[in-house]
Design brief:
Layout: H1 2-11, E1 13-22, H2 25-36, E2 40-46, E3 52-60, E4 70-72, H3 77-86, E5 97-100, H4 103-106, H5 111-119, E6 123-126, E7 135-138, H6 153-162
Parallel strand pairs: 4-5
Antiparallel strand pairs: 1-3, 2-3, 5-7, 6-7
Helix pairs in contact: 1-2, 1-3, 2-3, 3-6
Length: 171
């Protein structure tokens, strides 16, 4: 739940506190991406005897304000899946960004999510033609109508988290 909390806090305006956040690779990958999306994240101590952190996230909210054009999500499947539609909520969606990931994630197909986001107004293209990272991402998350065959809950959750923020209603 830590990654979801970081991403939601990045889309929100103001300051969010995440207590007992898991200190893991997925968390660190999400923190790096959120910071590239202009969130300011500070660690307010580790919890003794536990692999958890207390985090403070300060963000100006939407649209996400970034001039960064290269994002890396390591091997974090959840960060990769959730960040793709969030990149359609940037202030400069006409500028393409590249989303790269680690070798393990490059083996996982993102094709159902890519297809749905293209139907929803974004332009998401897999650069190697294999349905996975690296991706070129541009265009605004418009909303509208889409169909997704989701092999896991992450794709659907990523859409459910971002589509209420799209320009149009979605079905």
């Amino acid at each position: 739940h830590t990654v979801r909390g970081l991403l939601i806090a990045t889309m929100a305006t103001g300051v969010s506190f995440l207590k007992n956040s898991l200190d893991a690779g997925d968390t660190r990958a999400a923190m790096a991406v959120c910071e590239k999306l202009a969130a300011k994240i500070t660690i307010h101590g580790k919890n003794p005897g536990a692999q958890s952190l207390n985090l403070k996230v300060k963000s100006k909210g939407l649209p996400l304000n970034t001039g960064i054009t290269d994002f890396f999500t390591a091997n974090s499947g959840i960060t990769t899946s959730f960040i793709i539609p969030m990149l359609g909520l940037r202030n400069n969606t006409d500028t393409a960004v590249t989303l790269r990931c680690g070798q393990q994630m490059m083996k996982r197909s993102l094709q159902p999510l890519i297809k749905a986001l293209n139907e929803l107004g974004m332009q998401v293209q897999d650069l190697h033609g294999n349905g996975s990272c690296p991706l070129s991402i541009s265009g605004c998350l418009q909303g509208g109508s889409a169909h997704i065959d989701s092999p896991n809950s992450q794709y659907l959750s990523a859409l459910l988290m971002t589509l209420p923020l799209a320009l149009k209603d979605t079905e």
